[in-house]
Amino acid sequence: MTETSEEPIEAELVDVERLPVAAGNLSSSAVHTERDHELSDDTRQAIEDSIPDNTRRAYGRQWETFTNWCTEEGRVSLPATAKTLAQYVRHLTTTPSARTGRTPAPSSIEQAIAVIRVAHKAAGHRDQPETAAALRVLKGYKRARSESGTRRRKAPAINLDKLRLLIADCDPATLAGLRDRAIFILGFTMMARRSELAGLHLEDVNEDDEGDLTILIRSSKTDQEGNGAEVIVPRGVHNETDPVRVVRAYREALAKRGVTGGRLLRAINQWDQISHDAMSGDAINEMVQRRAARVLPNDNLVYTAHGFRAGGAGEAYKNKAPLSAIRSQGRWAEGSPQVLEYIRVVDARKENPMRGIGL
């Protein structure tokens, strides 16, 4: 039997004669009052809570940067004019970041424009500021970058060999070392986003009847409504990289310190003392960058937590795992081209037409 929508069934329960389907059914004297524009505190909080933490932080940074620039330039940030937005985009395209020493990628500037528009809409200034001039500035920036050979640098993959180097850098005699090993192993085997790692609770990670790990991801980038996804991580064959042993050792160390519930990944200070504060996605990324800078081949590359996601997909593909299984393990949306980017790198080396021709 063909599955059908439930909507027609629900419609039968509604008295359609009482619906205001025509303008004449509405009272001509109906006028909105202040009551129609009120939101209770809990409803306002529910709206706020629907936005993922990492998105909220990114938007907050973008808006703060824009308002600070407007203050320095003597311009009004809200409502901003189209010329202010265009000038701000020009500023972004010509001002290197203090952190990276480079001007931002076009995608970052597009996000800045979107954030400014969202802030205006939230403040009642719908469709402001007008973006045509700003987008022309951005278009010219993209063309200039292309002509100069500048392109977006992709986060390098952390393959199995690099994973082992990172694991070896973690001292299992310390809680921080046990935690960081768990982050590396779970990030790689789950092909996890850093926000997914940060969101894990102790009760979400369990050893199942088969001796593997069954992990619940409560929400992710492709599951904003929080339906949840279950990921299975098989046990390994080497003590140092076996996900089951690594996670078990970390959990046992937490239990000895009285931590048996709540977030899996906790902040740990320089004296190896645990905090009840959860590690954020940014903190996970900073830890990965710090350890990678110490032990991985430099080659002017900046390794990030995203490298585990790319590396896990690549190593699985090398091992002849089907694309559908890789996509499911990494929770890529159906039709997403991103996972293909990771496996194309593998094919580009393995099936390169110049390989083995006798050069």
Q: Could you characterize what this model shows?
A:
About 50% of the residues lie in helices and about 5% in strands. The chain has about 350 residues and is mainly alpha-helical. A 3-stranded antiparallel beta sheet has the order 1-2-3, with no helix packed on it. A two-stranded antiparallel sheet has the order 4-5. Strand 4 and strand 5 (about 275-280) form a beta hairpin. The relative contact order is 0.09. Mean pLDDT is about 85; it is low at about 1-10.
Please specify the SSE layout and strand pairing.
Elements: H1 7-12, H2 41-49, H3 53-73, H4 82-94, H5 106-122, H6 132-148, H7 160-168, H8 175-189, H9 194-198, E1 205-207, E2 213-217, E3 229-233, H10 243-256, E4 266-268, E5 274-278, H11 281-295, H12 306-318, H13 323-329, H14 338-350
Descriptive labels:
single chain; three-stranded antiparallel beta sheet; 5 strands; globular; disordered N terminus
Distance separating the two termini: 61 Å
Low-pLDDT residue spans: 1-12
Tell me, rounded to a whole number, the average pLDDT: 84
- Strands side by side in the biggest sheet: 1-2-3
Specify Rg, calculated over alpha carbons.
Answer: 25 Å
Briefly, what is this?
This protein has helices at residues 7-12, 41-49, 53-73, 82-94, 106-122, 132-148, 160-168, 175-189, 194-198, 243-256, 281-295, 306-318, 323-329, 338-350; strands spanning 205-207, 213-217, 229-233, 266-268, 274-278. With 359 residues, it is mainly alpha-helical. α5 (106-122) runs antiparallel to α6 (132-148), α8 packs across α12 (306-318) and α12 crosses α14.
